[in-house]
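We were asked to recover a plausible sequence for a given structure. The inputs and outputs are reproduced exactly as logged, with field labels preserved.

PROBLEM: sequence recovery
POSITIONS: 294
GIVEN STRUCTURE:
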């Protein structure tokens, strides 16, 4: 598969990694990047993520066969409307957003106005570091990429989006947008809320100065993702607030079960919680390793 031109709107960690992977695999004759700040142009050039970067959105999108939105969720609707004058008829637009229902509903109708096709996608990859200089060509290898077509989706466009992610080393999985949002609220969004809350609680300046000195590997590993982009996670939390709120309720209920067992000194109940967690995680790790090696 090779596109004549791919445009990446937002050349940060994800957008930059897509660009590096596309260029490495020679999946497009031309890779353009759009950035908001002129200061980012040099970083794009240094990283080698695109053939050229520009702050001119319409110039970046012009004549592109595939446009990938890699910006915070709150910006996508506005950007979709802005690119319409330059969007080529028959072009495919996709995204990497972590929340899909609102994005798919809004962008599908907007992009259709230009005679183009929108197909939502979400690669389950990322990192706590931000910016194009943190990008990696192998970021998407052996990871699931959710593709969220609707009844209105162009079948050929859906297949091309799936093939594109396969070309980057990912494993596409089709899900309805609403189902996707429910599942990631537990597996992706809740962990970030927990990590952020733990970091805020334990590293509160009001605590003893010795407290941070006692934060070792376990704390560092558990809170790693709290170093992610606050802007991005603000948008994710608000866009998926109903599902995340429900997930937080369930999580709090589970914590209260542990607290109750602890208060009553129920050794068997406490051990069972830890044992069940270990078994489930070990099984998941074994399955993940087996799947990624296939």
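RECOVERED SEQUENCE:
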């Amino acid at each position: 598969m090779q596109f004549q031109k791919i445009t990446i709107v937002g050349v940060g960690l994800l957008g930059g990694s897509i660009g590096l992977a596309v260029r490495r695999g020679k999946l497009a004759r031309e890779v353009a990047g759009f950035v908001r700040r002129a200061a980012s142009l040099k970083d794009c050039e240094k990283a080698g993520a695109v053939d050229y970067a520009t702050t001119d959105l319409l110039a970046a999108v012009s004549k592109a066969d595939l446009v990938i939105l890699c910006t915070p969720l709150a910006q996508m609707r506005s950007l979709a409307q802005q690119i319409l004058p330059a969007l080529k008829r028959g072009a495919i637009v996709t995204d990497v957003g972590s929340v899909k229902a609102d994005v798919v509903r809004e962008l599908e109708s907007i992009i259709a106005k230009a005679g183009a096709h929108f197909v939502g996608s979400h690669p389950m990859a990322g990192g706590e570091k931000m910016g194009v200089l943190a990008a990696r060509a192998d970021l998407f290898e052996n990871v699931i990429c959710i593709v969220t077509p609707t009844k209105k989706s162009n079948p050929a466009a859906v297949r091309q989006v799936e093939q594109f992610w396969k070309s980057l080393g990912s494993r596409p999985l089709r899900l309805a947008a609403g189902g996707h949002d429910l599942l990631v609220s537990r597996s992706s969004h809740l962990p970030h809320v927990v990590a952020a809350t733990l970091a805020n609680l334990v590293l509160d300046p009001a605590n003893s100065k010795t407290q941070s000195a006692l934060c070792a590997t376990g704390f560092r590993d558990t809170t790693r993702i709290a170093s992610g982009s606050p802007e991005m996670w603000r948008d994710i939390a608000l866009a998926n607030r109903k599902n995340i709120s429900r997930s937080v309720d369930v999580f709090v209920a589970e914590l209260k079960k542990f607290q109750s067992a602890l208060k009553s000194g129920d050794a068997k109940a406490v051990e069972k919680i830890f044992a069940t967690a270990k078994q489930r995680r070990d099984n998941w790790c074994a399955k993940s390793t087996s799947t990624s090696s296939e």
